[in-house]
């Protein structure tokens, strides 16, 4: 394996991490608001808060990691994406800022406020939608590169079926991932009412998730046939993803092994995510930029990889401690601490 | 908008806006964990619940400021790429290592902060809980260190060769530890501690001015002022060393800050003043030899003046005021904390005198202003360079046509976040006053309320 592949694999892995933890986080924020306005179940919101409070800040770091890392490993992306993404990127920043701060204001401030809850619940759903623009652009056809100027073709972007299908997939996946995690969490907490609610949500959102995934396949085939044919070359990864999905839904439906069910959901997205990523290679931005012409010099690459390994040695034990104290501590989960 | 569109100018305004907003929360984020650790440690050592409550209440307020620090930090991180793509393309090749390590430091801090906040009563040994604060303090200070090395690199780039516009022979470690790094990182970190001590001291002083003379506030004041005094000495000493760094590596920046036009020996220091039309200084206070001492530690040393540089390579002269204001505030903070300590030692009945309490309360906003002034001086003083001697600021900027609209968008965002966080913090402490919480936790003692 060469440095280029190693670098992009590490970054892609971080983005996957963000995809999972942020989905749980964003979905939980949305359910929190939804339950509040529909007066469904007060218990549920306590449960959500207990999970989110200690971990929300960690979620954000995954994202920062990714964009700091991609500039480190592939400095040329700054030039292409940086120029083109000013407007959509700024909108994402505003959404992230609102989401993070109002979450903290609502949770740590003196009382639970309906407006704050609305702001962070809704911005959480819009963030994934706005981020997907980057993935969409990377397929090519939405940028005009001429005379050293890079411009985003907004008209093309907003009228393309492909870009809308990615947005739909992002939003429903967030709700599906989040609901399947919370089903498991509620079960562990022994909170029966919440468990039934989230189980219903998970089953409800499973249909749209799979429909949206299929829709993407057709959209990519129309938009970027070359990418589509590389996807077919590794179609086993997508089939695997489908199997994981069916397994997860089956377990949740039969109310068995909910922890395993959530792991299957993670695997479902893992195989689809890496299948998508692998078939996208070598392009970072089709057809202008590949991982080979945008790569950082070798000295820096080595330094970054060394720093990365040292950092992991520090972080993994700390993360394990965090999870043992909050995620896997039965007393904490039940609210006895 | 109100002026002719120029992407580079608007990018500078937007960068300055975001950094200026972020830096308030970032400074508090670096300094307050240390103060929390001090308070909790005092509480354990003296077995005094007041200090533990202090740590608890500070930590609670801290979470809100961290949240805004994190989101604005994320904003500035993304914005650097969006607004300065050409600069980041070059910086990515040379200085991405500390940027990368900074994220690790944050990650480390974030994990332990999460644990700290939710484990107040979970361990049998109180010391264990305090130990959790150490990674938070280290993570915060190291992230400040790493990010500041990036800024140091912009002032004193090294660790690479530029041959016909192509970068070769890259040494990431040399780029990180450039000549500006020692003074810059030390000054930034110590001023974060100083500012946090004064901001927290301000809270106690204001409570006492409002007539609440609970011993809890007196203890808070004493702890913060002791820390503030030590850090203010550190600030002045390292500030002086920063001046010596400038004299050696960026003489035109120092000269612009000091309105020092002609190269001369035994140079006087110009304080305040105004420039008239033909470039002469009026109404200024001149301290003989002082500039030579600041620049080289020797009253007769020669200090290079602005005349030796072409005009297009020097910074706007307005930086003088920012520099002077920062130094003035630095002296003020050192003096106020010294007076408090002197009184507490020799003249106890003046220790909580109204005038002194007012002076301490003013120290909170003033120290934040000093941070802002310091950065404005450091950044505008580096102009016209984005990368000193290598890349001019407009060359690094985006070519996008929408930076002005984004500027408005972010002004709105920061106005919203600034007001909301102020409201939340006020409510948080007013709805749950100290006396109330002391009673609630069963640590109230009648004798304390004098
Ligand atoms: C509470 C804040 C504060 C206080 C009281 C002071 N400073 Fe400062 N100063 C900063 C906060 C700061 C800063 C925000 O941290 C800066 C901006 C950029 C930097 O590196 O640090 C800075 C920069 C800075 C620089 C420019 C470094 C450069 O551009 O590379 C010099 C020469 C000084 N300071 C000198 C002083 C002196 C002689 C002080 C005497 C009292 C002083 N500062 C007080
Ligand atoms: C790693 C640290 C930093 C980096 C990489 C950085 C980068 C930049 C860049 C690229 C610009 C635009 C070019 C320019 O006008 O000089 C800028 C401007 C500015 N930055 Fe920094 N900066 C850093 C630290 C800070 C901090 C912490 C502050 C604190 C407030 C700050 C304040 C400003 C201001 C006020 C401007 C506008 C200056 C002007 O009007 O020309 N900078 N910075
Ligand atoms: C010297 C000036 C600066 C200091 C002292 C500083 C410090 C901080 C602090 C304390 C936080 C809060 C995060 C936490 O507590 O976990 C923060 C967040 C952040 N800062 Fe700054 N910052 C500075 C300037 C900058 C600049 C110039 C950048 C841009 C490159 C930047 C990038 C970030 C990022 C990306 C975050 C969010 C990190 C996360 O998500 O955990 N900071 N910064």
Question: Can you characterise this structure?
Answer:
The complex is a heterodimer of chains A (337) and B (450). With 337 residues, chain A is mainly alpha-helical. Helix content of chain A is 82%, strand content 4%. Chain A has a two-stranded antiparallel ribbon. Chain A has a two-stranded antiparallel ribbon with strand order 3-4. In chain A, β3 (283-285) and β4 (289-290) form a beta hairpin. In chain A, α1 packs antiparallel against α2 (42-73), α2 (42-73) packs antiparallel against α12 (298-327) and α4 (86-108) runs antiparallel to α5. The model of chain A has no long low-confidence stretch (mean pLDDT 78). Chain B has 450 residues and is mainly alpha-helical. Chain B has 16 helices and ten strands. Chain B has a two-stranded antiparallel ribbon. In chain B, strands 3-8 form a two-stranded antiparallel ribbon. In chain B, α1 (7-45) packs antiparallel against α6 (133-155) and α1 (7-45) packs antiparallel against α13. The longest helix of chain B is centred in the first third of the chain and has 39 residues, at 7-45. Chains A and B meet through α2, α3, α4 and α12 of A and α2, α3, α4 and α15 of B. One protoporphyrin IX containing FE (HEM) sits between chains B (19, 22-23, 26, 29-30, 66, 69-70, 73-74, 76-77, 80, 106, 109-110, 140, 143-144, 147-148, 188, 192) and A (60-61, 64).
Summary?
The complex is a heterodimer of chains A (337) and B (450). Chain A has 337 residues and is mainly α. Chain A is built from 13 helices and 4 strands.
């Amino acid at each position: 394996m060469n440095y280029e592949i190693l670098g992009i694999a590490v970054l892609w892995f971080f983005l996957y991490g963000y995809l999972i933890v942020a989905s749980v986080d964003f979905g939980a924020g949305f359910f929190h608001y939804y339950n509040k306005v529909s007066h469904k179940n007060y218990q549920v919101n306590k449960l959500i808060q207990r999970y989110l409070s200690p971990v929300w800040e960690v979620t954000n770091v995954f994202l920062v990691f990714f964009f700091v890392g991609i500039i480190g490993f592939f400095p040329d992306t700054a030039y292409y994406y940086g120029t083109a993404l000013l407007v959509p990127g700024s909108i994402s920043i505003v959404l992230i800022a609102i989401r993070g701060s109002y979450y903290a204001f609502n949770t740590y401030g003196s009382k639970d406020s309906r407006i704050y809850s609305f702001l962070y619940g809704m911005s959480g759903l819009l963030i994934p939608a706005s981020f997907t623009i980057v993935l969409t652009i990377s397929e090519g056809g939405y940028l005009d590169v001429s005379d050293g100027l890079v411009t985003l073709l907004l008209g093309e972007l907003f009228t393309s079926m492909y870009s809308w299908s990615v947005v739909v997939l992002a939003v429903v996946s967030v709700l599906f991932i989040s609901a399947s995690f919370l089903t498991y969490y509620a079960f562990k907490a022994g909170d029966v009412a919440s468990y039934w609610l989230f189980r219903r949500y998970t089953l409800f959102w499973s249909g749209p998730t799979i429909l949206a995934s299929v829709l993407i396949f057709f959209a990519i085939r129309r938009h970027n046939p070359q990418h589509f044919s590389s996807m077919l070359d590794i179609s086993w990864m997508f089939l695997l993803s489908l199997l994981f999905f069916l397994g997860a839904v089956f377990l949740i439906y039969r109310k068995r092994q909910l922890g395993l069910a959530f792991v299957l959901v993670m695997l479902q997205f893992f195989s689809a995510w890496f299948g998508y990523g692998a078939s996208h290679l070598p392009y970072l931005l089709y057809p202008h930029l590949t991982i080979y012409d945008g790569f950082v010099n070798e000295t820096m690459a080595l330094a970054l990889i060394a720093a990365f390994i040292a950092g992991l040695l520090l972080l993994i034990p700390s993360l394990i401690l965090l999870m043992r104290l909050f995620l896997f501590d039965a007393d904490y989960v039940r609210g006895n601490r | 908008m109100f002026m002719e569109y120029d992407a580079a100018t608007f990018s500078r305004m937007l960068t300055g806006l975001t950094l200026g907003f972020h830096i308030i929360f970032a400074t508090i984020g670096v300094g307050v964990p240390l103060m929390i650790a001090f308070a909790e440690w005092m509480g354990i050592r003296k077995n005094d619940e007041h200090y533990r409550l202090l740590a608890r209440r500070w930590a609670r307020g801290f979470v809100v400021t961290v949240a805004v620090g994190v989101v604005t930090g994320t904003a500035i991180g993304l914005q650097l790429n969006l607004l300065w793509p050409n600069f980041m393309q070059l910086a990515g090749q040379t200085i991405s290592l500390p940027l990368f390590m900074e994220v690790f430091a944050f990650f480390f801090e974030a994990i332990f902060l999460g644990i700290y906040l939710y484990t107040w009563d979970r361990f049998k040994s109180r010391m264990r809980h305090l130990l959790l604060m150490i990674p938070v303090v280290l993570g915060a200070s190291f992230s400040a260190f790493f990010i500041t090395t990036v800024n140091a690199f912009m002032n004193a780039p090294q660790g690479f060769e530029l041959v016909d516009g192509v970068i070769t022979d890259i040494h990431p470690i040399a780029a990180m530890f450039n000549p500006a790094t020692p003074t810059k990182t030390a000054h930034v970190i110590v001023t974060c501690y100083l500012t946090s001590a004064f901001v927290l001291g301000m809270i106690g002083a204001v409570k006492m001015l409002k007539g609440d003379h609970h011993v809890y506030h007196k203890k808070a004041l004493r702890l913060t002022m002791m820390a503030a005094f030590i850090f203010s000495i550190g600030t002045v000493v390292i500030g002086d060393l920063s001046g010596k760094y400038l004299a050696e590596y960026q003489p035109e920046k120092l000269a612009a800050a000091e309105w020092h036009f002609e190269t001369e020996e035994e140079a006087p220091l110009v304080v305040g003043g105004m420039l008239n039309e033909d470039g002469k200084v009026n109404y200024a206070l001149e301290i003989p030899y002082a500039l030579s001492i600041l620049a080289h530690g020797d009253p007769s040393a020669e200090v290079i003046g602005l005349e030796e540089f072409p005009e297009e390579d020097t910074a706007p002269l307005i930086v003088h005021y920012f520099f002077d204001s920062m130094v003035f505030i630095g002296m003020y903070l050192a003096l106020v904390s010294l007076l408090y300590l002197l009184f507490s030692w020799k003249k106890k009945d003046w220790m909580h005198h109204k005038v002194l309490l007012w002076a301490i309360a003013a120290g909170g906003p003033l120290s934040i202003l000093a941070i802002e002034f310091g950065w404005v001086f450091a950044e505008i003083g580096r102009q016209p360079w984005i990368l000193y001697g290598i890349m001019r600021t407009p060359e690094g900027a985006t070519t996008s046509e929408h930076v002005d609209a984004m500027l408005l968008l972010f002004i709105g965002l920061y106005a919203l976040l600034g007001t909301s966080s102020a409201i939340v913090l006020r409510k948080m402490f007013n709805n749950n006053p100290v006396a109330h919480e002391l009673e609630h936790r069963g640590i109230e003692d009648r004798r304390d309320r004098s």
